[in-house]
Amino acid sequence: MKIKNSSFIGLLITLVGGLALSVISLSGGCYFIHIIYNEVAPKLHFPELEYLDMFWILLMILLIRLFTKPTSND
Q1: What is the pLDDT of residue 65?
Q2: What are residue 71's phi and psi, to 5 degrees?
Q3: Is residue 72 part of a domain?
Q4: In this structure, are residues 52 and 35 in contact, taking their beta carbons and an 8 Å threshold?
Q5: Closest Cα to residue 25, out of 63, 74, 66?
Q6: Full-prediction pTM beyond 0.85?
Q7: What DSSP line would sit under the chain, residue for residue?
Q8: What does the alpha-carbon distance between residue 43 and residue 40 come to, in Å, rounded to a whole number?
Q9: Which residues contact 52 (CB under 8 A, 6 or more apart)?
Q10: Residue 12 included in any domain
Q11: Residue 74 lies in a domain
Q12: Mind listing the pLDDT tens digit for each residue in 34-71?
């Protein structure tokens, strides 16, 4: 019983820590996009920067695919 309880606590700490890191990195990314939209884009006059949100989504998908290993049933 003691082993199951400690592994449950470890799992809970891992999940909470992972969630906290995800929120921190997502808020940092949103702040980066906010700076580019409001400060950099008007000075450069690039209409292509309005597609930056799609680029950000595709970059996140690429990073998730690179750092997660697919499960194999071999």
Answers
A1: 80
A2: -80, 135
A3: no
A4: no
A5: 63
A6: no
A7: -HHHHHHHHHHHHHHHHHHHHHHHHHHHHHHHHHHIIIIIHHHHT-GGGGGHHHHHHHHHHHHHHHHSPPP---
A8: 5
A9: 33, 36, 37
A10: yes
A11: no
A12: 776 777 666 666 665 566 667 777 787 888 887 776 66
The pLDDT value given to residue 21: 76
Full residue range of the structural domain in which residue 32 is found: 2-67
Measured CA to CA, the distance from residue 29 to residue 27 in angstroms comes to: 5
Residue 2 has pLDDT above 70, yes or no: no
Count: domains in the chain: 1
Please enumerate in sequence order all residues whose Cβ is within 8 A of that of 50, keeping only pairs 6 or more positions apart, or say none. Answer: 41
Q: Compute CA distances 3 → 6, 10, 12, 14, 64, whole Å.
A: 5, 11, 14, 16, 32
